[in-house]
Predict the 3D structure of the following.
Amino acid sequence: MMQLACPLCRQPLDEQPPQLRCSNGHSYDQARQGYWNLLLVQRKRSLDPGDNTAMVQARRAFLDQGHYAPLSDQINGLLSQALAGQSTAVELLDLGCGEGYYSARMEQALQSAGIDIALTGLDISKHAVRAACQRSRTARWLVASGADMPLPPASLDAITLLFSRLMPEPMAKALKPGGLLFLAWPGEQHLIELRRHIYADIRPSDYDPLSQLSEYFSLEQQQAVQYRFTLSDSDSIQTLLGMTPHSQRLAAQARADLAALAQLELTLDVNLAVLKRL
């Protein structure tokens, strides 16, 4: 697995368990759960950035119900196809890995496909990364900023960015020339039924990640994943709501209406793309 870079001076970090240390004497202790916290205090925009404990727990509970497993399988199929035939271990970063559901499944799928994979998961939320440590003991987990990744330039074969904020220049910098970026973002109909319960006016999104990435990446492949699924009890509906940003914007009446629902049929609509570093 590749060497990390010191977030203070960018020198290589040598692993001297349970510590990382660079030649300038900067050192970082490994958390007891197994992850490395390389998010500098002075680079935080809040005291506790990223998803809080409640959102992490809700996301984990919802994803473990399996409703998004077909989406995860589609992502893993794309990864396996694109990364097959590599002669050396594939350095793969799951950027904005959250609590590790997709990360752990992609690690398992790639290994099953005979691909030698060295997986690193990175998220700015320490609560999410702590939970991710329970998903895989073989992946390396980092608390860090995606805008200032503690990685050497041109060190990655591939990055997955699933429903996370775009950072075109940092991602391009971390990838090797010709490295791959796997992207997932919501389509127009994604969870439309839930959004209709929350918002009086639903406007079409003008979000276009591909145009924002065109300076650094060429589009290799694009596809949509669409299917319907049903949440068959109130607890599942509330769990889904708790893992989304929509929960922060709920009016009292909308909250009461959702709490009264015993079942909710939903649409999954997600865009996938494979891009290559120019």
